[in-house]
Amino acid sequence: MATTINVQPVSRIEGHARIVVQLDDAGNVDDAKFHVFALRGFEKFCEGRPVEEMPRIVNRICGICPWNHHLASAKATDGIFGVTPPPTALKLRRLAQNLSWIPDKLLHFYFLAAPDFVLGPDTDPAQRNVVGIALANPELTRKVAHMRQEGAMVLEHWLGKVIHPVAAAPGGFAKPLLEEERKEYLEKTKEQLEFAKFTIKFAKEEVFPKYLDVVKELGVIKTGFIGTVTKDGTHEIHDGVLRLMKPDGTYTDFTYEEYTDYIGEHIEPWSYGKMPYAKKWDNGAFSMDLDNPMGIYRSNALARINVCDKMATPEAQKELEYFRSQFGQPAQLTLLYHWARLIELVENCEVAIQLLEDPEITGRDIRAKVEVKAGRGVGCVEAPRGTLIHDYTGDANGLITKANLIVGTTHNLAPINMSVKQAAMATIKAGKYDQGTLNRIEMAVRAYDP
Amino acid sequence: MAVKVASEWLNACSGCEISILNIGDAILDLIPEKIELVHIPALVDSKYFGALGDGKELTLPQATVGLISGGVRNKEHQEVAEEMRKKVDILIALGTCATNGGIPAQANMWKNDDVFAKVFRDCPTHDPVDTPTELVPPYTDSVKAIDEVVKVDIYLPGCPPHPKWIADALLALLDGKTAYALEERSVCDTCPVIREKKSGGGADIKRALVNYEYNPEEPIEKMRCIMEQGYLCVGAVTRAGCAGDTGAPRCIQSRQACRGCFGPIRKGARPLVDMMGALSSIGQNAQTVVDRRAMLNRFCGSHNNLRPLPQRPG
User: Fold this and answer.
1) CB atoms within 10 A of CB A309
2) Which residues of chain B have pLDDT under 70?
3) Does B126 touch chain A (CB under 8 A)?
4) pLDDT of residue B163
5) What are phi and psi of B206, to 5 degrees?
């Protein structure tokens, strides 16, 4: 008899979703889908709001990456008013951007993903979580909790609010960095770099090798990739151009404003989540067929690691070179997202240190003069989960008339669906499955950190 | 024996859950000895339909304490809230979305069909399509606070709530108490800026297009009140507590104005009306607040504070 398996909620991810697997009469996978229910309607309720208020409204899109929405939004508001923030303000934003990624990476790797790897995919679900990790490795867990907290508290100490920040504004930044703050955060960030280097070494030596067979099989699909790079192709998360890479490694770079020329969105009748795709590929077709996907690209860490020519900093570059020597470019194995995330963690720490050692970072010229006028602004930054695109139009009164938002995980909705289907087909055969099997399907989702 | 805690997120952003984590090292002293997390999708693998996904009804485990972040936007949120209420002794509405609707309740200014029409039929990256209806839960008629759907025992507002209050509330419950509430004070009551009870910036409310006047080398105590500088700051009608029990209000620490993220000072207050009064009292023209209705109900659009405006004839 045909069976429906309803995995809900998908757990240890940073959002709401469910997986539905349909088995045929023989107990094999007929179909598997990843459903997203959330639709809050930001694009609608931002209409009419004052342009300068946007960075303080749209940060609520995500409580895990509010800084990234906040900064993308600030850039879009700069664009509407046609203003360029002073160099110090841009550096402060870039500093906040890099600092905000550090606790996020630690949270995802150790607390959300690690239970599957450290405890194993088939462990009793009641133990397969951060508490289980804490019981298995109490010292390391304390250290991780401490470092994550320290990372978050730098931003809170500096700017009052670490979740749903308010410091970025059209034309720049609301608060400078004082010299004593700079010194203190520099020391703390150096500690973060040491811990980041420990983390990637620990992962490479003790975590990933144990499950290489899983890495090579689970959720594997072949797609293109998107990410931000500087004009010379360096990995970048705050300001640059967008690079869209085909599965064969060829790519096109384009500016933020050109995104509508390259990215379309496909909508299925069974999900509120839209599915962005590369509309210049495959004659504009969209298909999630596992054997012949069309228009499908991925975002988030693995994508950024794949599209860049090099990393921005020396330690991260060494890690990229080793990664490429093992997996090539572009690397397609879905579970390598976990590895790519840690390469970026090293870069985040190094970039933050560079900025904190930059004499200009404590400057006082942090807000350009802003005058209300009509216009359009497209602001992009990378969030840990992928490229954020905030496209606003404002009228002569400085009120928003239109907003279009494509946010991190949205780019990955089609690929996640494909990985879920692939994982379900690879793990469920002739009606045989248990909770560990279903957890493996969820692991294919978790890799994307949706 | 450890107290069982269940946690759910509905029309939410996960910020409240990160705020729970920001309790910091202390949380590792509570878990698992004093608190057993029986259900929290962000961290624990507990499923509505059983570990094999074959259950027929949405089920949550029994717990002493339940936490819900996010408001209710669709029928599934409603079902989860009702099931949680049945299974827990004490229900906490965590964060301003749960207590007052939060930012997502700005959508209450429109009918649901207007939201769908914008999202699915007026977008530069795709052609107009029908609103998805297969397997997705239908919208409720508005974005609701939790207490519009089920009885709430404890309110912990904030966007996000400060970790201090989350920890204090949990510790109070672990001690056997059954009630916990933030004080009914305003953000201004906890704000150390200089106030002269008169506008120093003229009658018209200026827009937040520049940095406010302050010397970054000096503490906040030396900064003039942002409202008295002539800009909108809604601390007067917002519940205190955003910075825990220490320091200036958080946005003020960032040298930015309050926008009301802890919600109204007391249940049933009308921040729009009260703020108009506060502005008038220092000689400012409350009519000049840009985007007044949405601005002064930014975090509290549930409880009928925001509704679609009647269509103009013709």
Assistant:
1) 13
2) 201, 312-314
3) yes
4) 96
5) -85, 155
CA dist., res. A423 & res. A155, Å (int): 39
Q: Which of B118, B255, B259 comes nearest A43 by C-beta? A: B118
pLDDT tops 90 at residue A440: yes
- Residue B85 carries which DSSP code? H
Q: What angle (nearest 5°) sits at the alpha carbon of residue B77, between those of residues B75 and B78?
A: 60
ipTM for this model? 0.97
SS3 A185: helix
Residues of chain B with C-beta less than 8 angstroms from the C-beta of A107: 18, 21
Cα distance between residue B158 and residue B94, in whole Å: 8
Tokens of A341: 């995330």
Query: For residue range A125-159, what is the model confidence (pLDDT) as tens digits?
Result: 888 888 888 888 899 999 999 999 999 999 999 99
Interface test with A, best of B4, B7, B8, B13 (most A CBs within 10 A): B13
**Do residues B67 and B39 touch, judged by C-beta distance below 8 A?**
no
A178: left (phi over 0), alpha (psi -120 to 50) or beta: beta
CB A114 within 8 A of CB A107: no
Q: Which of A64, A160, A366 lies nearest to residue B251, judging by beta carbons? A: A160
- Whether residue B208 and residue A372 make contact (CB cut-off 8 A), yes or no, is no
CB-CB neighbors (< 8 A) of B19 in chain A: 63, 163
Pairwise CA distance, residues A442 & A13, whole Å? 9
Cβ-contact B276, B297 below 8 angstroms: no
**CB contact, 8 Å: B19 with chain A?**
yes
| The token pair that represents A17 in the structure block | 């979703």
Phi-psi label, residue B291: left if phi above 0, alpha if psi -120 to 50, beta otherwise: left
Above 80 in pLDDT, residue A100? yes
* A139: number of Cβ within 10 Å: 8
Helix, coil or strand: residue B99: helix
Tokens encoding A29: 């996978």
Query: Nearest chain A Cα to B246, which residue?
Result: A160
Cβ contact B72:B302 at 8 Å: no
- Reference B21, options B91, B65, B69; nearest CA is B69
Q: Do residues A209 and A225 lie in contact, with contact meaning Cβ atoms separated by under 8 Å?
A: no
- In one letter, which amino acid is A358? D
pLDDT of residue A217: 87
With a CB cutoff of 8 Å and minimum separation 6, the contacts of B111 are B308
A186 backbone dihedrals φ, ψ, rounded to 5°: -65, -45
Whole-number pLDDT of residue B313: 63
Looking at residue B78, what is its pLDDT?
A: 98
Q: Which of A61, A82, A196, A120 is nearest to A72 (CA)?
A: A61
**Beta carbons of A51 and A400 less than 8 angstroms apart:** yes
**Cα–Cα distance between A408 and A14 in angstroms, integer?**
12
Q: Which parts of A327-421 are beta strand (E)?
A: 375-383, 386-394, 400-406
Spatial CB neighbours of A352, under 8 Å, sequence gap ≥ 6: A95, A98, A99, A102, A189, A192
pTM, whole model, 2 decimals?
A: 0.97
Residue A364 forms contact with B (CB below 8 Å): yes
CA distances from residue B211 to A95, A167, A173, B196 in whole angstroms, order as listed: 19, 10, 8, 20
Taking CB atoms and an 8 Å cutoff, what residues of chain B touch A271? 132, 135-136
- Note the pLDDT tens digit of each residue in B14-60: 999 999 999 988 888 888 889 999 999 998 999 999 999 999 999 99
Distance, in Å, from the CA atom of B60 to the CA atom of B79, rounded to the nearest integer, reads: 11
Cα A346-A352-A353 angle, rounded to 5 deg: 90
